Every structure is written in structure tokens, then in C-alpha cells.
């Protein structure tokens, strides 16, 4: 029997959980918030001190609820590309740049000009969210901070340093966000040199540890702060959504983890490298050896529905819930309407940040329920489009595990299953990242022989949800219209996006 303390650092706060391997269940959970600041349009920052305080608060609370004074291992997942800049002793030199911070848009575009073999792993360019464009921006615009920086790292690396006193990087984050050659297991200094940040290499954590690898024992002082009587092993984690692959047991090719929340992330693994243009990856060995990780996603999802309900319709939580129920009871009310879900651009398969949202077919007879239903359908069509393009690239998806806020919105959930047109497993656990980190830590201490075995043993319970045949047929007919409208409106949407940037 092993007990694992798991941490999941999300955008708005931290969740901690205590997991028992024998019973395959989370014994207790606790939460702690931290703030996000938006000093300028497109900027988003957090304080590493907030992460430290939340870790101690939620970690101690979860242990107390579980009645544990000892645990065998600890593992953490965080948002990806939330970048901390600090001294080697962990002292921050500035606020951390949150994953959604897009100040480095110009730098991200520049990365597309580099012709280097390692760039094929990310589809030829870096996203504005990633560590490398943010480092480029910092060196150009905050040279004082850059010159003083001894460590430039992910939030995950900062938390692991807080836990152990060791600076290490996760192979997952390095592979997916740093232009690290995870096939050869080495940094590629000439890439950073081409981007004008040759000195980034020396500032990154030099020891790269795979998911489920051992970092070090917890610092004695940290153990005491958490109320632990032992010094558990700290195992390497990774990106919050990606670690959820272990909790969903979609680690093998053919499986997809679909997390629907503020945005949507769809993750699949391949047995070998192949052309997945339009998506992020494939990243070799990002999660486990011998597999290639592919990241798909939609930028605006739950955020779009919340914006409609709150900002446009003026509904409170109860009113929003009633609207969801109204649409769920009559999903076909969107007939004759077509919306495009690009409220914040498109992640995949178009990788076009200048696309914008649209709503077509409106008449004076339409109601807000009709508009909400069309918006749900647009998000579902975006998801269907992702799977359609994956299929065209030769990527088969036989099993889908769905989790996140989408599970709490019956209209959105059923529309997505109908649009995908295949049975979906809906996770009962509302946080697969906590389960995934528990699986990674259990593998690290030998409770299971490897990550595959840990994922199979610790998979979160789920229930099957079937598509409605009539609605599935409707979505199948609507998808070509959605795709055609995107292409025809692209020039107009780009012009509008340009005017917005200049305003």
C-alpha cells in the first residue's frame, strides 16, 4: 500500500489530494486560491509567492482530512508555459508570466522562420504561450530582469525546487514547450541562438527528468511545514492536462483524453512519428518512452458560454443553469443558425490566432436560447473538426475519455458526443490531473512497474455516454458547412482582428 500527495496548480488555484494505491481512490482533497493580475491588455501574471502559500495551505489541509502524517511520494502538475524568472535560491525577480499571457505574439511569429529539424516536433513554430517566445520578449523588453535572472523555468520547476531544493525540468514540458530534442535527450543551443537568446540554455534547469522519474527526497523543512513526519520521494510530474492521460488511461495509441473547460485540450499518443500538421507535435517521449504525444485544442469553449450567459444575457449562475436545461431539452432549436467558435482565435487544426467568432442566420424571431444552442453547436463542431482532421492525417481515435467542466453542462456534453459520433467515457473524477500525478508517483516508487501499468491500475471510474443517432447525422451534415464558412470568412475575420489590434 502506498499513499501519494498530489498537487494540481491550475489557472485560478491549487488542488491537493491524498491517493491510496490499494483502494485506487482519492482519500481527501483540499483547495487554495491565488490571484492573477492583468497589468495590460494581453498580459497575465501571477506571484510565485502565491503558489508557495497555496501549496502549504492545501497540502496540509488534504493531509489532515486524510488523517495522514506520512506519505510515500509527492507529485505535481501545473499549467504549462507559466514562466518564472528568479535567482538560483528561488527569489523571484518579477511576477511569473501566466500561460495565457500573449505579449510575445511577434516573437512567436518569428519562430516560424527557423528551418531546423527539431522544429518539426512543434509543427514548425512556437505558440505565443510557450516559454521560448516569452524568453525572447523578456530579453528584448526587460533586459534588466533578463540580465539578473539566474533561472528561467516553468511553474512546475519552481514548485519542485520549493519541495526539494533541486532545479530540475520535466521532459514533458521541455519536449512540448522548450524546443528540447526529446528524441536525443538534449538541448539544442543553436535554436536559441537563432532566436537571439543563446544564453537561455544556461538559465534553464539542466537536469531533465521524465514523468514518473525520481527528483529527490522532500526537504526536511518543507515536510515539517506540511505536517509530515517523514521525507517522501518527490516524483516528476508535468503539464496538468497532459498528466491527465495517466488518470484517463489513454496512454496507448487509439485513446484520446478530452478535457473541456475554459478551453478544450484533446490529447493523443502515436506509436511512431507521422504528419500531424495543424496540431502541436508529435513530441517524442514526452510522456513515456517510445510514444509520440500530439496536442489538439480549442481556445474558447466554456469561456465562450460563460461570456454569453453572463456578459451578453446578464444571467446569474441559476439563470445559466436554467438556460442549459432549456437547450438540453430541445437541442435542435439551433437549426438554421451557424456559429463559429473562434472568439479567441483557433488553436487547431488551423493554428490561426487571427480568426474571430461569428453568428450567421439570425432573424428577429430567434431567442437567446437559440443563440446559446448555436454557440454550443459551434464548439461541438470545432471538436468534430479536430477529430476529422486527425482521421485525415491517419490518426485513429477508438476510445475517448472526457472530463472537466463540460461534464457539468449537459447540453454541451451531449452535443459534443453527438458531433463526435461515437461513444464517450465520461470521467466521474473531476480532476484527472490529480489521479495522473498519483499514478506517476506510484510508478516512481515501484508500486507499479511502469507508467502504463500505473495508468491501467489507477484509471478514474467513468460511465459511457452514447451519441443520439439523429443529432449525430445532423452534425455530420453541418461539419462541411462549418469548414466552408471558416475558409470563406477567413479574409474578413483577419481584417477585423487587425482592426482590433490597432484600436
TrEMBL record:
MF terms (GO), sorted A to Z: kinase activity
Domain (Carbohydrate kinase FGGY N-terminal): residue spans on this chain: 4-247
Domain (Carbohydrate kinase FGGY C-terminal) ranges: 258-444
CDD domains: ASKHA_NBD_FGGY_L-RBK
Swiss-Prot/TrEMBL keywords: Arabinose catabolism, ATP-binding, Carbohydrate metabolism, Kinase, Nucleotide-binding, Plasmid, Transferase
UniProt-listed InterPro entries: ATPase_NBD (IPR043129), Carb_kinase_FGGY (IPR000577), FGGY_C (IPR018485), FGGY_N (IPR018484), Ribulokinase (IPR005929)
Protein name: FGGY-family carbohydrate kinase
Native source organism of the sequence: Shinella sedimenti
UniProt lineage: Bacteria, Pseudomonadati, Pseudomonadota, Alphaproteobacteria, Hyphomicrobiales
